[in-house]
Specification:
Elements lengths: L3 E7 L3 H12 L1 H8 L2 E8 L16 E2 L2 H5 L6 E4 L7 H10 L3 E4 L2 H18 L3 E2 L11 H7 L7 E5 L2 H13 L3 H10 L8 H4 L2 H15 L9 E2 L7 H9 L2 E12 L2 E12 L11 E8 L3 E8 L3 H21 L21 E10 L5 H11 L4 E7 L5 E7 L2 E2 H12 L4 E10 L5
Parallel strand pairs: 1-2, 1-4, 2-3, 4-5, 5-6, 8-10, 10-17
Antiparallel strand pairs: 7-9, 7-11, 9-10, 11-12, 13-15, 13-16, 13-17, 14-15
The protein binds NADP nicotinamide-adenine-dinucleotide phosphate (NAP) and L-homoserine (HSE).
NADP nicotinamide-adenine-dinucleotide phosphate binds next to α1.
Amino acid sequence: MSMQIGVGFLGAGTVGSVLVRRLIYESDAIAAKTGLDLVVRGIAVRDRAKDRGIVIPPGLLTDRPSEVVDDPTVQIVIEVMGGLDPAGDLVLRALESGKAVVTANKELMASRGRELLAAAETAGVSLLFEAAVGGGIPIIRPLSESLAGERITSVLGIVNGTTNYILTRMVEEGVAYEDVLAEAQELGYAEADPTADVGGGDAASKAAILASLAFGTWVGGSRVTREGIEGLGTEDFESARRLGYTPKLLAIAEDSSEGIAVRVHPTLVPLDHPLASVRGATNAVFVSGPSIGELLFTGPGAGGEPTATAVLGDVITSARERLAGTQVKSRIRFASGRLRDPSGVSIKWLLRMTVMDRPGVLAQIAAVFGRHEVSIKSVWQDGRGDEATLLLVTHESPEGDLHLAADELAGLEVVSAVDSIMRVYDDEP
Ligand code: NAP
Ligand code: HSE
């Protein structure tokens, strides 16, 4: 007969309710595949009366999370509550009392991950967080275990399902921003506060976690510069399409001789780039290193079902470790420092401007770019008279130089407005 492992939940929302269903009603399938008898001992929620779409056996629900954390029959705590408070202190308490913790909380791991992993190591228990990045895509374990011997140089990709879903629907079907955001919330992709998604904060937390694991240097979430997708509009999509690009919210983490830079921002990618065809809530992450070349991890990046699979995998790993009596030593070490300001990193830019269509206008504009050492790659103009639209793509240039040039351009008499500035990511010279 197999030994029972007690499991307690902090949260039973989009992700948690799927997990509760699988652990209570599909436990035979889990036992058949793993030999584990996982038993749900308690489920902490805010509102015990809420309909969760599943029948929860009486006595399991509580609105006091400490009852789950302090329950001596719970050996593994699943934190799918989200946010920093009270989740952070509850996770710490669970670890300190010798319970393994599985969390999907990227905000918490990006903010207190180093402290919590150290606490887990001290207590000799595991803290696993596969679901914190990439939803159902296995990416945390490959980075921290399979690729631990590689000198990873960059991690780049789409790590937020909500914004990728929004951009896909807006660009391909012209759906209004508010409508498509509401859809993403209904589908269970968005965070409880969706400003974390659309403002780039969720992707920044994930980028911080990925960079920390990839480079072996702690990158706190607050060290990631971020811009969201709220400012993008139909005209930006149209300019991008005209020049052969599509907008994506990219997370880019690079380790070079100048240090580590991690950033999240809307970026135009060429229509024939593999990231351009990553649609809906799908995520895709390229990991590069000198020996592996380039690896691509892709799959469902958000939603209750895929995320629950990632959490369940960690629960099964924790349970196996418990049964084997393994004293888990933190397998991850982080150095400090080596972080650089991402605004110094060079990238190409697309500027959309409203200009007067007169002889000499382009020369004036080119002179401004020249003064700020920004080199022009291509120019496209449409319209005549006072309302000509000028699309201009630069070669790689640091953000600081580009913004100085843009400020000076906005002051030219022949430039009515610098309407938008977007980054461009492509491999072309
Ligand atoms: P959610 O639907 O908002 O669920 C949160 C759950 O936690 C709810 O059951 C809520 O109770 C409970 N809760 C929140 N604060 C509480 C408190 N102070 N005391 C007791 N219970 C509390 O969130 P979710 O989408 O499942 O996400 C959970 C975590 O997984 C987050 O960290 C998120 O970032 C991460 N994640 C989500 C996805 C996704 O696609 N949704 C994917 C990957 C990772 P009530 O139900 O009573 O309100
Ligand atoms: N809100 C997140 C997203 C959930 O849209 O990607 C998955 O982490």
